[in-house]
Design a protein that fits this description.
Blueprint (H helix, E strand, L loop, with lengths): L1 H20 L8 E5 L5 H9 L4 E4 L2 H11 L5 E4 L8 H5 L3 E7 L2 H14 L3 E6 L13 H11 L5 E7 L8 H21 L8 E3 L6 H6 L4 E4 L1 H4 L7 H4 L5
Parallel strand pairs: 1-2, 1-8, 2-3, 3-4, 4-5, 5-6, 6-7
Helix pairs in contact: 6-7
The chain binds pyridoxal-5'-phosphate (PLP).
């Protein structure tokens, strides 16, 4: 079970190196553990080692692990496709930030429910920077308008943007996705929208976190490189049709 701690140390070194490479402070990048398919006992190894930020893709898994993780301090984000019929469920499970808000209908229904419960929640807007149909996220050309619309909903606190990017061995193709997200962030910052913060850029995973950090990531989401390979293909989590 040592492997998890060993792997975290390696990831931290990679983050630090990438930050130095781009003249950034390593404290400006948060490590988020993508814990889909990972059992609570294994997640706890990472949390007890000092990690704090974890995220699930599916409400079902969030629910299943909730009890087991309750006594171990951590912060939950949500990084999967969120169906509107799961809104009540997600709000019951202490999710601090939904990184995958990508459509007006979802935002509206979330807002309605949050008003009823007298709560607010942090969100990121997920953008489909790879233009692949198989990936969720608002299209880059509609992202700014969506942020403007959602900024009118008082219970949703926009903190920034999230993207998955293209899955490619060609670094420059991946970099283009991250640059696109950064450029959308800059445009939104220039609009000075009331109530909208744009400090967070959640991008970069096990294979491409260096590139993401070079392009301004503040959250990198790492699963495989810490917990090992998963049984399910990512399409199971990233594409409704692949269930
Ligand atoms: C699984 C997942 C990750 C982590 O991917 P790895 O390649 O395992 O590091 C990051 N972001 C999202 C949205 C994911 O579903």
């Amino acid at each position: 079970m040592d492997d998890i701690i060993h792997n975290i140390n390696i990831i931290k070194e990679r983050i630090t190196k990438a930050c130095h490479h781009s003249n950034r402070n390593p404290d400006s990048v948060k490590l988020l553990l993508a814990t889909k398919t990972v059992a609570p006992e294994r997640i706890k190894i990472a949390l007890n080692h000092g990690e704090i930020l974890i995220a699930e893709n599916k409400i079902q898994e969030l629910k299943e692990k909730y009890e087991a993780l309750q006594d171990t301090p951590h912060i939950n984000h949500f990084i999967g496709h969120l169906q509107t019929n799961k809104i009540k469920d997600i709000l019951k499970h202490d999710v601090q930030c939904i990184e995958s808000v990508d459509r007006w209908e979802l935002a509206q229904k979330l807002h309605q429910r949050l008003l009823l419960e007298n709560k607010t929640i942090d969100i990121l807007i997920q953008v489909n920077t790879s233009f692949e149909e198989s990936k969720f996220g608002v299209s880059p050309e509609n992202a700014i308008e969506l942020v403007q619309q959602i900024s009118t909903l008082s219970s949703l606190k926009i903190k920034g943007l999230m993207t998955i990017g293209i899955f490619s061995a060609e670094t420059e193709k991946v970099r283009k996705c991250f640059q696109l997200l950064k450029s959308i962030q800059e445009k939104i910052i220039n609009l000075n929208l009331t109530g909208v913060e744009m400090n967070e850029l959640s991008m970069g995973m096990s294979g491409d976190l260096e590139t993401a950090i070079e392009e301004g990531a503040t959250i990198v989401r790492v699963g495989t490189a810490i917990f090992g390979t998963r049984v399910y293909p990512d399409s199971y989590y990233w594409n409704e049709n692949a269930k």
